[in-house]
Design a protein that fits this description.
Elements: H1 3-17, H2 20-76, E1 93-97, E2 103-108, H3 112-125, E3 134-138, E4 144-153, E5 159-167, H4 173-216, H5 233-282, H6 287-319, E6 327-330, H7 331-348, E7 352-355, E8 362-365, H8 367-384, E9 391-399, E10 402-409, H9 431-441, H10 452-462, E11 466-472, E12 476-484
Helix pairs in contact: 2-4, 5-6, 6-10, 7-8, 8-10
Bound molecules: adenosine-5'-diphosphate (ADP).
Amino acid sequence: MKPKKFLAFRERLGVLLHSIRFRLVLWFTAILAFVLFVFSAFLFYTQSHNLQEEAIHEMDRRVTGLAEIVQTALRQEAGQISIPNGLLRDTDVFILLSPDGQVLASQGSIPAQEAIQIVSAGLQTTPRTSESPAIYWTSPNSQNYAFIITPVQGQLEINFLMIFGGILDPNALVRRFLLTLVAGSLLTLAIALVGGFWLADRAMRPVKTITQAARTIGETDLSRRLNMKSKDELGELANTFDAMLARLQAAFERQRQFVADASHELRTPLTIVNLETSRATASRRSPQEYQHALSIIHSENDFMTSLVNDLLTLARMDAGQTAIEKTRLDLSDVAVETVERLTPLATRNGVTLEAGNLPETHILGDRQYLLQMLSNLVENAIKYTTGDKKRVCVETGTADETVWVRVSDTGPGIASEHLPHLFDRFYRVDKARTRDAGTEADPRSPNGSGLGLSIVQWIAQVHGGEVRVESTLGVGTTFEVRFKVV
Ligand code: ADP
């Protein structure tokens, strides 16, 4: 084999040896081999034992018959013993001993003296009881012989000894059974190995598909999906993978949109600042004109500061870098503090900011974040409320195991088609109007960037709460945040 080909082969072999497929099949085959071995050993032991017992019973029956014939012969004509043809098989051994140990008659495949030696050696090592008179001996050609020694009475009640030997398993059933077991087990193992490998390969094919697909998916191409239809565990894995890709794609999309929106939002005030400074420095201006230009720059600067602060808050929230320290606190206290802090802003905008019904309502929360959440809602209410009787009211209460805080205003209301998008980042009902209104109402107040409500929603969610909004055009808007009672 050429070195290059050999290296490629070695690499492929390495991959195969480390693969789950290979390990799965190896374990499976090893366990199967163990089970087969235990099962075969058990089967072999019981079967060979049964066969042996059966053979000894059969020999016992034959020995009884023989003993009767020998006894009759001994009583009739002592010294002349002949066994009728057909009673002894070629492999049988028959020996008749006189009381003084003389061989009176012998017949069979093993010479009489050799057989006597074997039997007496066997008797010395393993004394026999009358219940188990068999002595086993394995001949050089590995046939199991059993010997049975029986006393036979001749004339004048003289005791002779009859030794009978026979092959336990003349048809080599045990050996054939052992061979069958070994061959069957090996065949089963071979089938299991090949079949197991085929099955494991088939089962792992979707994993290969997933791996290949994952390799082709880049940061910029998150639209690819595996779309595997199978309902098994790998199908579930592929579906989870697809769902993860969808989430990643949405997150990347949001990120891209966020960066684009943030840049867009910053571009407008920067352009305004640029324009104002160019205009102011182009030629000599009156002090009023300089003051006007500076106040516009100041206002845009405030807007950018507020925008950057909001962006920073959102970025920290997304990165999970916000340290929320929850303690048991009274939500009405937070509402009172918000009202107190924002009353000067409301007064400047000609809005009556009221603290409505504020019973004690306890929740687990971070005071600073809850203050920011309520401030955003109240600032919005102040900012967007127009008309003669401008009123904003903050209330708290409890209902159905929940604690709520409401901020309601008598503003222009929000059209229903905007309500589902209100908490989206950078979403503004009317961009132009918002920024103009902010400047008119208070030249120093920051204009809306469309981030306030998404911060409100995030704070509510990390406190296990939810924000609801109800609005009627021309009547007003109510924002309500609900939390669980503690
Ligand atoms: P912004 O910084 O623009 O106020 P928000 O996320 O706080 O951003 O609000 C999103 C939009 O929802 C606002 O631009 C405004 O059009 C609308 N909005 C929020 N609160 C009110 C309210 N109390 N009354 C009317 N419109 C509101």
